[in-house]
Amino acid sequence: MPKLRRLSGHDVVAILKTFGFVVVAQRGSHMKLKRRGSEGDQVLTIPAHTSLDLGTLRAIFRQAGRFIPEDRLRPHFYSA
Q1: Strand (E) positions, the chain?
Q2: What residue segments make up the domains of the chain, in order of their start?
Q3: Could you say which residues form the signal peptide (predicted)?
């Protein structure tokens, strides 16, 4: 069973940028990312913490999975 990687908020933002998301705002320690999709704007909020809790990473993975196919996203979030 692959394990969820330990990632920082900035690591997650870098991953999502490869899928076309851009940082549009930051308020405190949270960054708002957006990309234009076929159904309209797709928005994700990512904490800018040095180490994200595993539950937070799972939630971000699930939310990003609404916009990006999980098979393309999984190698970035899970170790082999």
Answers
A1: 22-27, 30-37, 40-47
A2: 9-77
A3: none
